[in-house]
Amino acid sequence: MNRSHKIILISHCLLNANSKIRGAALYGTVLLPVIEFLLKKDVGIVQLPCPEHSFAGESRWGQSKDQYNNPFYRNHCRKLIQPVMYQLKDYLEQGYIVLGVVGIKGSPSCGVKHTYKACWGGEMSGKKGEKIFQEGYLAKEPGVFIEVFSGILAEEKIDLPFVEVDEENLPDTLKVLDSLFISQ
Ligand code: SF4
Question: Which of 10, 34, 16, 24 is nearest to 116 (CA)?
């Protein structure tokens, strides 16, 4: 059988929502409409590592980009991306087409155009905690993992499109994904 020689890199939780913070997923375990779409396109799917799960575990609290955007977490992201870069460079050297990277709208780590920001920190108990939770907002910028990933790609002079899945708007998400295939 002929292989398609096409690869796409996707955020971990699209295939495994167990990595998300508890209660955060709008789907069961696999985001089927997105994965089925990719399967029908006959593209090889590379599942990126989940930077938050591997940093703070399954029982972590939801955090904002402001909290994750620190040297410790950025270094953690860099280390996770290194083996992905080896895969990526090998595929590119062998003439494969890498269609792009698919992140998650709103994620403090994997957001591409939108990330959750909030200037949190410190004691969260009682009324003070409730007030703090109301201060978060969706900023038009990438999350930490995507920021680090695109920085490494720039260092390596590799140009890839980044798009994001909007779990609340799957019809538009599929259109965005489709655009990655149009020029190929
Ligand atoms: S950090 Fe990224 S891969 Fe992990 S659950 Fe959040 S959006 Fe998904």
Answer: 24
Helix (H, G, I), strand (E, B) or coil at 158: coil
What's the number of domains the chain is made of?
A: 1
d(CA 35, CA 13): 11
Q: What is the pTM of this model?
A: 0.95
Evaluate: CB of 110 within 6 angstroms of ligand 1. Answer: yes
Tell me, yes or no, whether 1 lies in a domain: no
pLDDT tens-digit readout, 14-66 = 999 999 999 888 999 999 999 999 999 999 999 999 999 999 999 999 999 99
| Domain assignment present for 49 | yes
| Residue 85 structural domain | 6-182
Does residue 105 line the site of ligand 1, with CB under 6 A?
Answer: no
Q: Which amino acid is at 177?
A: L
What's the CA-to-centroid distance between 149 and ligand 1, angstroms?
A: 14
For 10, list phi and psi in degrees, rounded to 5.
-125, 150
